[in-house]
Amino acid sequence: MALPFLFEFWAHDHQLPPEGDWKTWVIMGGRGAGKTRAGAEWVRAQVEGSLPKDKGAASRVALVGETFDQVRDVMIFGASGIIACCPPDRRPRWVATKRQLVWPNGAVAQAFSAQEPEALRGPQFDAAWVDELAKWKKAEATWDMLQFALRLGDNPRQCVTTTPRNVGVLKRLLSTPSTVTTTAPTESNRAYLAESFLSEVRARYAGTRLGRQELDGVLLEDMEDALWTSQMIEALRVEVPPALDRIVVAVDPPVTGHAGSDDCGIIVAGVAAKGPPQDWVAYVLEDASVAASSPLGWARRAMAAFDKHGAERLVAEVNQGGDLVESVVRQVDPLVPYRAVRASRGKVVRAEPVAALYEQGRVRHLRGLGDLEDQMCQMTGQGYHGKGSPDRVDALVWALHELMLEPAAKWRQPKIRVL
Fold it and tell me: What residues does 27 pair with on adjacent strands?
């Protein structure tokens, strides 16, 4: 009968505390990845001793959730909550009038709502379990009050279980040297999830930036002053494009072609060109970018995308490679309709009119563009804040210049009337 309560036997790796001397353990995962169970079992491990009446490492625990109801209904009484995880001889009793869980060995866990940070002023604890920190409306104030209260014992620790979101309190916590992190996607816990749930969320969110956050448990950052944001991109998501009047493949080749090279940005986009150019809508169809490839390798990848989508033209930036870029492409297909483009302005200046198209709702994204969208959300008015070069964004910019901005500029030119 003891085996069901031996969590170390059943747990996934991301549900077990890391080794080492840490202050905060952050469990960051997708929906249904087993975060709540891991938090509840960590509390058990802190308060339980060898025998039911023996003292554990902690005896005063703070349980902090977004609301008091969520602490009670999820962290304490939920299907993966503390009471469900405890064996009968160690199961705590709930004292509703005090909002406390009391164990047979005298350990006490106090429930708190993140909506009332001042309630944490005064009490003191030697352990804390914090749930869904990234969702709290008063996250900064509540988190600060908890840190002042976590002062009992030789080594007070806290466990944070949360779906990642781009909020300051979580980002600062993850960058703190005393923080350790484990991550997991929703799929890692599939044995305990309904197949209908997995099928539904995969169908709806797979291949989207929101899906990477909510299902894969990846912290996606939007920079301050970003030209694009996650919310903007998700609002422009479509499942299937309409019939397109023109499709292009844009390429931003790396300077060199070895293992340490930048990626080669390869973006496929098309346009539904109905009416005057200001009414056109572009669709980003595929990110076919390739990492650290030889020139012939990226050229083959670009032409494969060209043929797959039935594109009309391949557009390539030639600032670095000059005529070599075209010669490499023509080794793969000597007859490909090709246009060389040369950047005369900085990346941000080129990107800003493309970002304006998104603000006007004139660009749509299909699924599967997560890496491109990550780069987009790190491009700001002051430059790119990601690692390496924004090769995918550069290729996107060239594609939309070709499809949208240049036709519009030509259409606006005054027409010369011949008498």
Answer: 161, 182
